[in-house]
Amino acid sequence: MNGLFVTNGIVVLISDAVQLLIQMCYIGSMRLPRTLIVGDVHGCLDELKELLVKLQYEASDRLIFVGDLIHKGPYSKEVLEFVVQLNAECIVGNHELRFIKSCRKPESDNPETLRFKSQLGVDLDKWLKWMEALPAFIDDDEFLLVHAGVVPHQAPQNSSVKDLANIRTWDGVGNNLQVESNPPWFEFYKQSKLVVFGHWAKLGLLERENAIGLDSGCVYGKQLSALILPERKIVQVNAKKSYVELGAKLSC
Questions:
Q1: What 8-state DSSP symbol labels residue 56?
Q2: What is the topology classification, in CATH, of domain 33-238?
Q3: Among 96, 121, 230, 244, which residue carries the largest CB count within 10 Å?
Q4: Which of 184, 217, 185, 181 has its CA nearest to residue 198?
Q5: Can the peptide bond before residue 230 be classed as cis, meaning omega within 30 degrees of 0?
Q6: Is residue 116 pLDDT above 60, yes or no?
Q7: Which residues pair with 139 in a beta bridge?
Q8: To the nearest whole percent, how much of the chain has pLDDT over 90?
Q9: DSSP conformation letters of 156-182
Q10: Is 136 exposed, middle or buried (0-12, 13-18, 19+ CB in 10 A)?
């Protein structure tokens, strides 16, 4: 079957296939803005680029990263540069905090941070200031974004940046937020607002009614994940390789 298409006052006879293509292009041009939240990248630049292609990322989308752009993977500096080029938003992760501490207190240096300092070279101060300016969380009308999680019974603005970037489990008082035998923090989260987080590669992708965890362990040879809002769709790409080994203990 054929259809009629009017352009510049001229009626043109077109095939169904061409008509469908025109409709798809029109729908695409009218697509509502989306929010795309990307899990822990950890220097996995190739996988990040592939993920954005799979997401069909457009400039009209709101692109946000959960933190931990750096360390472990092969292209930490390049990931930073790419994220800035995209004009994306990002919150601070525990690895950014660790790097800031290492730069401000050199006695806390370790081989990983020393290597990254060397990679940044003369741009070290610029990137350090950029990381220090990252927010600890983003509280949107539809979601709350934190790197690791929320402290039970405590608003994020009343929590320390360190806790928001590191919490995994809850001991009932807040003395130790990393004990694997304790229940995870999200078991205590009862609010309806969606919390989106990363950080916990050993846990992997988590989908609950009010909490979604996006650290699916790309740097460990698993997947890089993203969440599309408002439809709450998960999109993943496989890692090119395992860059570091995920140990038996809870991984940073």
A1: T
A2: Purple Acid Phosphatase; chain A, domain 2 (3.60.21)
A3: 96
A4: 217
A5: yes
A6: yes
A7: 144
A8: 74
A9: GGGS-HHHHHH--B--SSSS-S--TTS
A10: buried
